[in-house]
Amino acid sequence: MLKIKPKTVFTRSIQWRLMIILMLITLILMSVIWVFLNFQVESIFYSDFKDGIESKYNALGIDESSTDLNKLLNTLQTNPLVAGVILGEDKSYTIIDKKTGEIRYSSDLAYQADKIQFRNDIFKSENLLAVMSSTAASGENQSYTRSKNGDFYDYVRSQTLSDGEYILFFKYSRAKALMVLDKFNNIIFWGMISAVAAAIVIGYILSRTITGPIHDIMRKAEKITDGEFGYALEVRSEDELGKLAKTFNYMSFRLKSMLTEIISEKKKIETVLNYMTDGIIAYNREGQVIHINPAAQNILDSQVSENTSFDEFMQLLGIALTSQQIQQEQFIQDTSHRIQYGEKYLKVQLATFTGEDNHIDGIITVLQDITEEQKLEKMRREFVANVSHELRTPLTSVKSYTETLLDGALQDPATAEHFLGVINDETDRMTRLVKDLLTISQHDGGIKLNLEDVSISDLTTNCVERMKREAQNKGQELKLIIKQNIPIIKADRYRIDQLIINIIENAIKYTPERGRITVQLSCEKGNVVIMVEDNGIGIPEQDVGRIFERFYRVDKARSRQMGGTGLGLAIAKEIAVLHGGNIFAKSKLGRGTQIFIELPMKKWQQAL
Ligand code: ADP
Questions:
Q1: For residue 451, how far is its CA from the centre of ligand 1 (angstroms)?
Q2: Residue 10 pLDDT exceeds 60
Q3: Which end of the chain is more exposed for a tag (fewer CB within 10 A), N or C?
Q4: What CA–CA distance (Å, rounded) separates 21 from 203?
């Protein structure tokens, strides 16, 4: 049986996938939070910076008409309101002439250190560029500007004074924000690591509650494939998995009963196929043997094996048919064949069976050994021919003698008497023949033996006594020898009597005058043996085995002359066989014949 055991690769398991999904969800969530918080922190920083400047600067209440640049600078440097808000260790302000773009003042230390570099840096600011080009009155874009001396946020506004138009550039170093963000990110990073670790652990535990029952089902399914149905799954919950376990148990139960049913059906069919007398060979679509029963092997004398294809088999039987032809035509034209197979006669029947697609799936051949049937048919035909022949001969002579008598032979009393004597003999022969035929027909119809306790020695003595006169008529010596004490056996007295008389009659018939006939009784190997021996004409060796056949006679003319019907020994054999015994002959041509009748003692009695 082909066994497929699924290999559990952890990376392909549901458990692994669930863990990965949970981990990814956690990772994505944390990343979103991270980005959001980063943005939020920067936003807070910038808002704080910008709002502080706006409120404090507005609170200065600068009068455009009476304030010039020097006054403004003075206010900014001295007014305590702005200290810390626009000026601080990481904050500075720069005043630029809007018209010329010249830096008129800067509190920034970087300006003191390198004026050109400072100017290059601040002129990268989008806010400053927007206000310079007058596209906006103030620049409050949160995005920071990168510079060699450190990234910075800026807030820009234009200010008209009495001596010209100026731009106030407020700068706020991003270093502090970055420091806070760094700490913040550090916390988030470790938070993320812990969250992912927690997700893995929770995912593992959670997925186990799902995959645990699935593993149980898997193990049970494996057991079922091995033919073990004895284990039921434990139903631990009422959820989908619980229902799955219940359904699985039910399925396993149904599968078991179906399998038992199938196995029993299969066994039944196998037994039928193995013990049936008809040979069965089944072939698949490709013409290969699927099944061959012992009867088929027996009928075909083991000439066909499981490796013999349908085509080879048909060739062997002499039937012009191939599996390809059947597949093409999708039917078999001649389904029944009678063929001669060596010494045997076989009836071969062919049938197809179809699969789900209604196409021929295979061929079944049924073989019947009809040799016996054929033999019986031949025998029946011969029997009818023999009977007609046996009756026609005496009838012809009766007819011809009667005609001769009617034609005037009656006038001659001596001839008439002779002719009437012949007619009488022929009629006697016909009567005997009809009597024998009746007995045979009774046997064929299945007679019931009238069994009783019979003393074979008494019965044989009686037969010999009755036949003594006939023997004496031929000057023959007829004697009986009883070698030992012969037990009483169960037998049909009338038929055994008929059998013994028949054999003694034959001995007298086929032994010349003054011959010697001995009837001898003995017990041998559980049988009562009646042996009738004569020193008559004997039987040729090739005929000895056939004299028990119906109408078989060694010398037809002689037998007929002796008034024989050719049925006596056939009837004798049937009687012996009906008693569970046997009859056979030993003979030497010209020296004499021995006929042995065996009647079982014990076996026969036990069977009764
Ligand atoms: P039939 O009526 O011709 O005697 P049976 O069936 O009794 O027919 O015998 C068949 C044949 O067997 C006989 O025709 C005869 O040729 C041969 N036969 C039978 N018994 C003897 C015998 N004792 N000696 C020689 N031949 C015998």
A1: 28
A2: yes
A3: N
A4: 8
Let me know: does 544 contact 594? Beta carbons within 8 Å. Answer: no
For residue 568, the CA-to-ligand 1 centroid distance in Å is: 8
Out of 172-186, 201-215, 279-293, least confident range? 201-215
375, 298 in Cβ contact below 8 A? no
Q: Encoding tokens for residue 421?
A: 């004597």
**How far is the C-alpha of 271 from the C-alpha of 264, rounded, in Å?**
10
Q: Give the distance (Å) from ligand 1 centre to CA of residue 114.
A: 155
Task: Please check whether residue 519 is in contact with residue 481, taking contact to mean a CB–CB distance below 8 angstroms.
Answer: yes
100-123 burial string, b = 16+ CB within 10 Å, else e? eeebbbbbbebbeeeeeebbebbe
The 10 Å Cβ neighbour count of residue 258 is 10
Task: Name which residue sits closest to atom 19 of ligand 1, judged by CA.
Answer: 506
Question: What mean pLDDT comes out for the span 296-315?
Answer: 91
Percent of residues, the chain, with pLDDT higher than 70: 97
Domains of the chain: 1-59+178-228 (no CATH), 65-173 (3.30.450), 276-369 (3.30.450.20), 374-443 (1.10.287.130), 449-600 (3.30.565.10)
Cα(558) to ligand 1 centroid in Å equals 10
Give residue 7's pLDDT. Answer: 57
Nearest alpha carbon, ligand 1 atom 7: 568
- pLDDT recorded at residue 8: 58
Structure tokens at 308: 């013999």
For residues 489-518, give the mean pLDDT: 95
- CA 281 to chain CA centroid, Å, is 17
Question: What three-state secondary structure class fits 411?
Answer: helix
Give the DSSP H or E segment for 347. Answer: strand 344-354
Q: How many CA atoms lie less than 13 Å away from 34 in the CB half-sphere?
A: 17
Q: What is the mean pLDDT of residues 245-254?
A: 87
pTM metric for this prediction: 0.50
Amino acid at site 499: L
Ligand 1 proximal residues by C-beta, below 6 Å: 506-507, 510, 534, 536-539, 547, 552-555, 559, 564-570, 593
Q: Which residues make Cβ contacts (< 8 Å) with residue 327, sequence separation at least 6?
A: 285, 360
Strand order in the sheet with 152-161: 103-106, 91-97, 164-173, 152-161, 138-139
Which of 511, 553, 587 for mutating ligand 1's site (highest number of atoms within 8 Å of CB)? 553
Residue to probe by mutation, ligand 1, list 510, 519, 574, most atoms within 8 Å of CB: 510
Q: Which residue is associated with the tokens 């078989």?
A: 552
Cα→Cα distances 187→34, 114, 178, 190, Å:
10, 38, 14, 5
Q: How many other C-beta atoms are found inside a 10 Å radius of the C-beta of residue 507?
A: 27
Atom of ligand 1 nearest to the CA of 502: 7
Is the CB of residue 572 less than 8 Å from the CB of residue 583? yes
What does the pLDDT read at residue 147?
A: 85
| pLDDT tens-place string over residues 80-115 | 777 767 777 788 899 999 889 899 999 888 888 899
